[in-house]
Prior knowledge:
The structure holds two protein chains of two kinds.
Chain A: H1 2-14, H2 25-30, H3 35-64, H4 73-95, H5 97-103, H6 107-110, H7 114-125, H8 130-160, H9 170-183, H10 190-195
Chain B: H1 2-6, H2 13-24, H3 26-36, H4 47-52, H5 57-80, H6 90-112, H7 114-120, H8 131-141, H9 146-176, E1 178-179, E2 182-183, E3 190-191, E4 194-195, H10 205-232, H11 247-251
Antiparallel strand pairs in B: 1-2, 3-4
Amino acid sequence: xxxMMIILFSAILxxxxxxxxxxxxxxxxxxxxxxxxxxGMSAAVVAIxxxxxxxxxxxxxxxxxxxxxxxxxxxxxxxxxxxLVQMVxxxxxxxxxxxxxxxxxxxxxxxxxxxxxxxxxxxxxxxYSFLDAMINSFGAGLGFALALFLFSGVRMRIEKSxxxxxxxxxxxTLVAASLVSVSFFAFKGLIENIFG
Amino acid sequence: MSEHMxxxxxxxxxxxxxxxKKSESPIRVVLNGLLYENPAFRLILGMCPLLAVTISAKSxxxxxxxxxxxxxxxxxxxxxxxxxxxDKVRIPAFITIIAGFVTIVQLVISAYxxxxxxxxxxxxxxxxxxxxxxxxxxTFASKKSPLFSVLDGLSMGGGFMIAMLFxxxxxxxxxxxxxxxxxxxxxxxxxxxxxxDPMMFFTLPPGGFFVLGICIVIMQFVVxxxxxxxxxxxxxxxxxxxxxxxxxxxxxxxxxxxGSEVK
Lengths: 196, 263
């Protein structure tokens, strides 16, 4: 149980996917302009991360490893994720139109979101068990959501303030991201202090 | 480019042909990749490796080499197959080809450079989802001849590598006081009674965001400088704005999401 809590909290706070691993930067900068789209994107990412990990973990352990073709990992995983996203989109369109309306537009963007491919590969690299892998994916998704949530708040303030002309747009956004990232350093000793 | 498009004055077919030739000249392709449309600082693509790997100049250099190889190789193959791949399944086909090249890089690096493999880690397989590669496959290689595609791959990859090296050098010099692992004598020395120490901030993740922001500003000044010089010579100006930061444009995967831009 303790092990699981460590994995969960380090994925959310200490090793935050966006702010300390730099995975999923594009959606982080792209859809954090307002809170509503940020939350929609985060929900879609959490769901796809869980699904993708649940599918790729068995593929690696029961298919690629026994056949000694582990080097095909990258190729197989990205195709699985692409197919998965497409499938979820189609199914959602048919079965759950309201949910599709809310999340549908974010789904195609997720295929090229490095956070999703990243978490599936990290699960294998760290030799997690299936349960640990799922917890790690869930934590990574929540961490992504947290970063997006906080940052959309920061950005709303930026839009209203007077910024030097040269810094307007992306540069000031990146500098703000840098400051948000600094704030996450406060969590560095968290795991050791609570569980150590 | 958008400024050319919005210019609605009538152009004779000859003029248009000439303009088309101009935009397709090899020099133009090379300059585009290295400067005007530098993938890192102008188009703002591929930010994951750009921020994560630029901790040191050395890892930036090798990551740049890997990106050049994958970009050039996949653009060449995609360009060769551009009439064969059906339009509807082109994105999965592109991804498969790109993933093949990434796997080659992964195998070579893990076989010959285990230390590098450790430091680049997960960012090597993640070249597959690097926006630059897919974006160039979609916008350039799937339309142009193999020779031009190779040139485009080399120049775009080169532009990306130079950008990474630039960022990597800044972060390594200021952050760890070394350059390509050589100690710089200025750090640790005492000037005017002040000991000068490297600033760790720059090697940490926040430093990455910060340096990238500053680099984009510098690049904007450079382009503005070129523009004011061109204006004196009556040449058409370059687009001054960097890529907009809306979701689709900044991730470069517009093609994959059928342009359903997130508003």
